[in-house]
Write a structure and sequence with these properties.
about 140 residues; two-stranded antiparallel sheet
Length: about 140
Amino acid sequence: MRDKVMNRWSTYEPYYIEFNGYKVADIVITSHALSRWSERVENGQGGIEHICSFLWERLKNCKIQPYYANEKDVYLIDDDLVMVAEFVELKDEIDIAGNPLHKMIVVTFLGRVSQDIQLRDLKAYYSWLRHTRRMTLVKHGRKRK
């Protein structure tokens, strides 16, 4: 998807999509995100190519928005699918103006809001999750003799 030919002869422009202050030129899917996609999003179609083309299409059509206004790691796709992603600058990759290009690393897919009601308020969900884990650790902690 890179090296799109421009109108001028022998001039190349790196292909990127501007998104949330980043210039995304590459998408990386982690193994955890791949397993979560097959568990929580689509059971039948779980290939990396399918996921990348799905995300590129959503990026082009501006169908991905930040879940919270101030945080830049949780995103909502099509107002339904919750995704966690990080952005890293690509080394030695710049656009024509000299600005750095980024790769989007998809960490995980949390699921669909329409299927899992708890995803409507992520902060409360993670607070509840931390509390239950802490209580499990306290319950199974070592006892002094």
